[in-house]
Amino acid sequence: MARWSGGLRCLLLLAAIAFIYTQVRLFKAQSEYAEKISAAVEGENHCTSQMQLLIHQISMQKEKIMALEVKAKQQEEEGEQLRSLVQNLEIKGVKNLFQQDQVPVAAVVIMACNRADYLERTIKSILKYHASASSKFPVFISQDGSNSDVRTKALSYKQLAYMQHLDYEPVHTERPGELIAYYKIARHYKWALDQLFYKHSFNRVIILEDDMEISPDFFDYFEAGADLLDKDKSIMAISSWNDNGQKQFVHDPYKLYRSDFFPGLGWMLSKTTWDELSPKFFLTMYTYWDDWLRLQENHRGRQFIRPEVCRTYNFGEHGSSLGQFFHQYLKPIRLNNLPIDWKSMNLTYLMEDKFVKHFADLVKGANPLYGTDLILKINNIKGDVRIKYRDQPHFEEIARQFGIFEEWKDGIPRTAYKGVVVFRYQTRQIFLIGPDSLEQLGIQNY
């Protein structure tokens, strides 16, 4: 009996120990579970707080989006009203310009943006000589953007028609560091020329900029040029500009040339040429529209008529080009001041088949000059002079000695005709002749 009682006590002790152990494990598990619940509750509270913050931010962004949508709609409505107003003004202006039955020679468009003072100076210069030619040359102002001073100035002249180009599309430059302004200028050019050729059905357009003055014979010059443009399809445009037209390099206001280099700065082109250029104009994202026209793939061997003495003067020291080369090349330009009757003159020598021989005779009549110290040697020679250059670096070296433009574009020096650059030195003609220029001119044994 005593043994059974001792065994029972052992069993009870073991059971007590097992119970205590179980309770300890249970307490530990409950504590861990309580900690996890506490962490979960804390995490849930944090998530709830973050969710509420996110909902608040989304609500704020939604309000901003709604506000922007309202503002965009208002701007669109205002833009539509402005476009409608401009169209009405343009229609009225064009009707006023076309009261006569005469077919215009060309529309003249002044490309403007945000320089009201420059625009006024340009308009005054044009109107000074425009009265007698108004029916032949209707004048438009094409404004890029919404500068109120420019618009007010343009609309103050009843003799002129007004167009406005509103471009809200973002500009993506092709290369780092490029100015957005040049891309917007190119868009404006395409839009304005499309308007004048396709909406208003002009056969020719003269492009001016809002920082130019014109010569007394400007309109007569382009009227005579229009006849050349129609008859000779190897002429791409008529220009009023000579890149080497600085006072010290020109002499004869009656002298005209053909050139393989597009001069720009006051030029006329025909609708047939624009029909070709418009679909691809600036599609290559070329920074400068004028350099784009100088690419051989675009001018395709066609040439340009240019004067020795400029018929436009560019006074725009401040603008998109930031005054580049203004004091060296633009400010010294000589503007013709003679009223020349170009329509009474025989300009058939400028036709493609005749000009090659005409120009070759001028080159053959010049005295050849070799070696270095060219200016010193020229002073000891009478008459015109021709100097042969080997390549572009050699040309640039010679150009620097005289002070003319050194620049080439797509393999062509500025003003060149078949590689020959001609300018004046003390009233004499200097011909800088390329390595194969004589061959192109059909000159042998010289």
UniProtKB/TrEMBL annotation:
Coiled coil: 58-92
Keyword entries, A-Z: Coiled coil, Glycosyltransferase, Golgi apparatus, Manganese, Membrane, Metal-binding, Signal, Signal-anchor, Transferase, Transmembrane, Transmembrane helix
Signal sequence residues: 1-22
Compartment annotation: Golgi apparatus membrane
Glycosyltransferase recorded as keyword: yes
One Pfam family recorded for the sequence: GNT-I
Cofactor note: The cofactor is mostly bound to the substrate.
Main location class: Golgi
Record's catalysed reaction(s): N(4)-(alpha-D-Man-(1->3)-[alpha-D-Man-(1->3)-[alpha-D-Man-(1->6)]-alpha-D-Man-(1->6)]-beta-D-Man-(1->4)-beta-D-GlcNAc-(1->4)-beta-D-GlcNAc)-L-asparaginyl-[protein] (N-glucan mannose isomer 5A1,2) + UDP-N-acetyl-alpha-D-glucosamine = N(4)-{beta-D-GlcNAc-(1->2)-alpha-D-Man-(1->3)-[alpha-D-Man-(1->3)-[alpha-D-Man-(1->6)]-alpha-D-Man-(1->6)]-beta-D-Man-(1->4)-beta-D-GlcNAc-(1->4)-beta-D-GlcNAc}-L-asparaginyl-[protein] + UDP + H(+)
PANTHER family on file: ALPHA-1,3-MANNOSYL-GLYCOPROTEIN 2-BETA-N-ACETYLGLUCOSAMINYLTRANSFERASE (PTHR10468:SF0), PROTEIN O-LINKED-MANNOSE BETA-1,2-N-ACETYLGLUCOSAMINYLTRANSFERASE 1/ALPHA-1,3-MANNOSYL-GLYCOPROTEIN 2-BETA-N-ACETYLGLUCOSAMINYLTRANSFERASE (PTHR10468)
Protein family membership: Belongs to the glycosyltransferase 13 family.
Protein name, entry field: Alpha-1,3-mannosyl-glycoprotein 2-beta-N-acetylglucosaminyltransferase
Organism: Mikania micrantha (bitter vine)
Lineage: Eukaryota, Viridiplantae, Streptophyta, Embryophyta, Tracheophyta
